[in-house]
Amino acid sequence: MSEIAALVHDVFGTVVDWRSAVTADGRALGARRGITADWERFADEWRGAYAPSMNRVRTGELPWTNLDALHRMALDSLLEKFGITGLDEADKQWLNLTWHRLAPWPDSVPGLTRIKKKYIIATLSNGTVRLLTDMAKHCGLPWDTVLGSDLVRHYKPDAEMYLSAIEFLGSGDPGAVMMVAAHNNDLVRAASHGMKTAYISRPYEHGAKQSRDFKAEHDFTYVATSFEDLADQLGA
Q1: Does position 222 have pLDDT exceeding 80, yes or no?
Q2: Which of 152, 198, 135, 232 is nearest to 6 (CA)?
Q3: Span 117-146, pLDDT tens digits
Q4: Percentages helix, strand, coil for the chain, rounded to the nearest 5?
Q5: pTM of the model
Q6: Which of 52, 57, 157, 226 is deepest in the core (most CB within 10 A)?
Q7: What confidence score (pLDDT) does residue 215 get?
């Protein structure tokens, strides 16, 4: 078997707790503007628009559209659905950029910092390079480099995303790159291209009502409860 040289990571939900951060920014904006709303449900529905919006690009219904623009389209629709008014354009831009300011799970930074001492660590995310860079600077994520969807103009689970990581960081050797994610389907797709896989458990990504990805459902290379646990297993 090839030795692992690099670990590439899903970010939303695996490395960062998007739900708490989006909810907190919604509440902060609501407090500034005197708006009352169910911001947890707003966060859930905003995230719920993520896959369908990317699928519109994947199927050709939309031309290539980066994630910031897809987030903004969903935001405008949700503001209308929730009856939220009184926001100016600066407010909407600030709220849309909440996805650049997401907060890490408590184990992410210390665990990744340990793993980085032994391996190249990078993102492999549907976010843009700028979004992922802003997020890393905001919360101290120690990436060696960031790989985003705008580099190849495709979204996971398109093959082009996984193949780009193999090309960029594995010198063309799929087994030299390991995909790390809290989502079974992401890891299954990575494995189909020959990549190694590591499952990180995030049973509260979607809050108390989470209905999927409670556990590893396949025979992944590693199964871990946290990044600290993964670091232990990797000897980092």
Answers
A1: yes
A2: 198
A3: 999 999 999 999 999 999 999 999 999 999
A4: 50, 15, 35
A5: 0.95
A6: 57
A7: 87
Chosen domain end from 100, 135, 155 = 100
Q: Is there a single domain that holds both residue 142 and residue 219?
A: yes
Range(s) of the domain holding residue 40: 19-100
Domain of 35: which CATH number?
1.10.150.240
Q: Which of 100, 116, 137 is the last residue of a domain?
A: 100
Q: What does each C-alpha distance from 10 to 75, 178, 233 come to in angstroms?
A: 23, 11, 19
pLDDT tens readout for residues 135-192: 999 999 999 999 999 999 999 999 999 999 999 999 999 999 999 999 999 999 999 9
Q: Are residues 132 and 93 in the same domain?
A: no
SS (H, E, C) 91-154: HHHHHHHHHHCCEECCCHHHHHHHHHCCCEEEEEECCCHHHHHHHHHHHCCCCCEEEEHHHCCC
Q: Does residue 107 form part of some domain?
A: yes
The number of folded domains in the chain is 2
